[in-house]
Amino acid sequence: RKEVEQDPGPFNVPEGATVAFNCTYSNSASQSFFWYRQDCRKEPKLLMSVYSSGNEDGRFTAQLNRASQYISLLIRDSKLSDSATYLCVVNRPMDSSYKLIFGSGTRLLVRP
Amino acid sequence: EAGVTQFPSHSVIEKGQTVTLRCDPISGHDNLYWYRRVMGKEIKFLLHFVKESKQDESGMPNNRFLAERTGGTYSTLKVQPAELEDSGVYFCASSQEGDRKNEKLFFGSGTQLSVL
Question: Which residues, other chains included, contact A6 with Cβ-Cβ below 8 Å and sequence gap of 6+?
Answer without folding.
Answer: A21, A22, A23, A87, A88, A103, A104, A105, A106
